[in-house]
Fold:
Amino acid sequence: MSPAPQSITLSDRDFRQIAELAATEAGLAIPESKKSLVQSRVARRMRLLGFRECGEYLTAITGNETETQQLIAALTTNVSHFFREKHHFDYVRDVIQNAAPTDKLRFWSAGCSNGQEPYSLAMEVLKALPNAAEQDILILASDIDRNVLDKATRGVYSASEVEGVPPRDRAAFLQEQPDGTYQVIESLRKIVRFRQLNLNGKTWPMKGPFDAIFCRNVVIYFNDETQANLWPRFHALLRPGGLLILGHSERLQPIEDSGFETAGVTTYRKL
Structure:
């Protein structure tokens, strides 16, 4: 393997091969307009591993599931905030407050990134149900990227990352550390379970039924075929009346014959 140069150029052929790999492995749609972004992120992986030529790198990772997943993770953007699109958490709060004390509650944050979304949901659960520790409550949080899951599992965030948490919630659910970071309290971490999962995989290990599935700012990166395949899979895992919650620029289309009805802004209820 040759020493990696400072500059790595992606040919059109290299780009097409990477785009096809991303589509096959993760259902990602990468237009040619993203070539420069792809080049910078692939180059980062190549430098890390010491590859000089992209073709050499792509040949080497053929059949290498671990590095293929690392490449897919590098091509995706992980942006997350506490209580992002707060109206969605208001919808779910109603679900929690209307649940009978003995009911099981199950939520899924699909594409949880660094963990802010499932922990925000956990805060709403604990605020609505003070005895949550004694009830059957679980929040599943999944992502394709093992690196962000490691951060999410630790539950440690910088001061800037917790700016979206209201002061009262910050005092109740986050512990300031000596270095100025904040760690999510144990009672929150206990009801959130993190798992690595490729949404484009042929099978999913979870059985449901879920009261709500958050899949926000994820499907926007998927091609049309992958999106169309996801809706019935989500539908099957929701209880009747359960909510499917998408990101602000995402829509369930077509909604006709999907088994869902509109319940709010980018929020859909299973019929």
Remarks:
- Confidence is low (pLDDT under 50) at residues 1-5.
